[in-house]
Amino acid sequence: MVVLHILLPIFAVIATGFMAVRTGYLDRNSVAPAGQIVIRIALPALIFLALATTPATEAFDLRFLLVYGAASLGVMGLCFGLARFALHMTQAEAAVVALGVSMANSGFLGFPIGQALLGPEAAIRIFTHCLIVENILILPLGLLILSATSADGASISRATLARDMLRNPLMLALIAGGAVSLLGLGVPPAAHSVLELLARLSAPLALLVIGGMLASLPASGRIGAVGLIVGGKLVLHPLAVGLGAALMPGLSSQMAAGGILFAAMPMITIFPLLAARAGQGQLAAFGLLVATLGSFASLPLVIHLLGLAQL
After folding, report:
1. Handedness of CA 114, 119, 124, 125 (dihedral sign)
2. DSSP summary character for residue 1
3. DSSP states of 91-153 as a string?
4. How far apart are CA 103 and CA 205, in angstroms?
5. Please, are residues 225 and 90 in contact by the beta-carbon 8 Å criterion?
6. What is the phi/psi pair of residue 245, to 5°?
7. Which residues of 52-62 are buried (b: 16+ CB within 10 A; e: fewer)?
């Protein structure tokens, strides 16, 4: 029962956020500001501190980046093709499917669960690697696909994508932390204490935000499209990462297991907002709701198969 002992408190915090919003104890408009605290303050502090205090030679694992990036791209392309040509979805729907299956909820859900199972240091390291792949490769490509089918016909330029990426607080923290590590500057004790205190907010507050968001999502959408999104994200994505890890020589077992675990998470919470660019916000919201609820059942199985804990 070790898996349940670890996951139940995490899911209980999510349920607390859900009930707080659903019952009106917290206004649903309070969820977004709380999410901004996680994205703009807590997680950047966590990322910067982790990288700045890690020797540059140990900060990044090229093998992991190759495996996770190739697997995410492969699943994106496969599911886009299945949606477009096998299930005869519109290009807009296929674009939403492609983005939904290839970007995991690394920050709000992956990190808290990874921290509980792998330990803080390993979870932070895997999280930063996933962040690099998602923000430099998957998200820009997904936005380009979505912009080609946007509801208002607007397109996204490469300059706009680059600007948005460089304004992302998580990417700024990653770049700054990597620079401090590379230059060997170190973090002063007082600054370390402040950053550590802020970083502790990330896991519990992120879980509450997940619950609050679920309480606000609509429960309707195309069943076939939602089924492909959920199956692609919870099954195909971790399987693809696992296959890549098995074929990549020299990748540590801990990084391989962590990559599969993070890939098994449901999609990012801003998925419906991104899909709204192509007029598919309702489909994405329902997909996010079903995938997050489905992960409550799929994650214990993934954790058991990885041998991270005993049922």
Report:
1. negative
2. -
3. HHHHHHHHHHHH-B-IIIIIHHHHHHHH-HHHHHHHHHHHHHHIIIIIHHHHHHHHHTT-TT-
4. 21
5. no
6. -65, -35
7. bbbeeeebbbe
156/48 Cα distance (integer angstroms): 29
Q: And the tokens for 19?
A: 């009930």
C-alpha 291: how far from its chain's center?
13
Task: Give, for 220, the enclosing helix (H) or strand (E).
Answer: none
Q: Which has the higher per-residue pLDDT, 233 or 277? A: 233
Residue whose structure tokens are 């330029």 = 157
Overall pTM > 0.90: no
Tens digits of residue pLDDT in 32-71: 888 889 888 988 998 898 888 888 777 789 999 999 999 9
The domain spans of the chain are 2-7+39-306
CB 41 within 8 A of CB 198: yes
Residue partners of 117: CB distance under 8 A and separation at least 6 = 6, 123, 261, 303, 308, 309
Q: Mean pLDDT across the stretch 109-122? A: 90
Q: For the segment 130-158, what is each residue's pLDDT rounded down to a tens digit? A: 988 988 889 888 878 877 665 554 555 55
Q: Are 181 and 52 in contact (CB under 8 A)?
A: yes
| Domain 2-7+39-306: CATH architecture, name and number where available | Up-down Bundle (1.20)
Q: Which two tokens stand for residue 187?
A: 């973090």
Within the chain, residue ranges assigned H as helices are 2-22, 31-37, 43-52, 56-59, 62-81, 91-102, 111-118, 120-133, 139-147, 158-167, 169-183, 189-199, 202-214, 223-231, 237-247, 253-263, 271-275, 281-306
Dist. CA 80–CA 275, nearest whole Å = 14
